[in-house]
């Protein structure tokens, strides 16, 4: 066992204790007070484990934490979030605990464990090499990732530099997430004209019928060959059973592996037109997150493979997934990004959410090794690339 793995194994009881404590500070994204409490607890943990106090940035009531180490410009950013999808009170039925080698609790895998692992990986590097080894590193923990990062995106893109390690959960088999689809979200609204459905329906313009035609066209924008999915989701129309619907809308979820595919779908959605000449189609929304393409993760995946070999860790394997993360933003602005470095388990956003305890120390050691390799002058260099 190498020294990194040994230190991570020794820290495992503390990692678990810290993770359970953070899980127990429930923090659903829309509850601003709860997110603020979670941020305060996370800030205190960073100070206790690393000796520095994060800067608390509150935007539109949402609390994000920025921890800068040293005085040099950022050459590495560790990225995570402390908000969750779980409402207050979930702990009463899903307690935070370790049982039979599994860490459970709402938001544990996604991704409070990852936040704790990032802190402990930094602590390992500090213990081995001193405070100067953390110079030029930024740890960013946001508070609104689960709702699309509306207030943190600009902060992420402003602070990201050099390389980015994202401590979101890995694949179910421990894979690193090297490709993430980009996400676009739309609402297509149709304005028609109401009329009595029994007396004079011909005087109306049926927005539901117009929308139904559009939904088929929207669905047909999917491209299996390009792994692009265009999915009509929420649909609403009409007010009463005896009234021609004057309004209707559909929400659309788009997932694509390339910016070019996002642009193709966007252009086609914005070109939608109703059949009835007096019906009005309005499109709102657009690209929410650019894709994390393989070209942006490849340099760091190669580095992770070398770090694993040097420290007797299981060689990492890359995985393409449909879900997005804040790593999509950093990759989208041309910064090498490696995702899925957090917990290993399954059931994110589900009652079965869990992380395998056996994977925590090896993964934390891998992150520590990556940090050291990226920031040390003698280690492999990761250059910024164009997106």
TrEMBL record:
Residues 180-272 form the Peptidase M20 dimerisation domain. Transmembrane segments: none annotated. The keyword Metal-binding applies. It comes from the Bacteria. The active site is at 83, 145 (proton acceptor). InterPro entries: Bact_exopeptidase_dim_dom (IPR036264), Pept_M20_glutamate_carboxypep (IPR017150), Peptidase_M20 (IPR002933), Peptidase_M20_dimer (IPR011650), Peptidase_M20A (IPR050072). Its EC number is 3.4.-.-. GO terms for molecular function: carboxypeptidase activity; metal ion binding. Keywords: Carboxypeptidase, Hydrolase, Metal-binding, Protease. This is Probable carboxypeptidase. It comes from Rhodococcus erythropolis (strain PR4 / NBRC 100887).
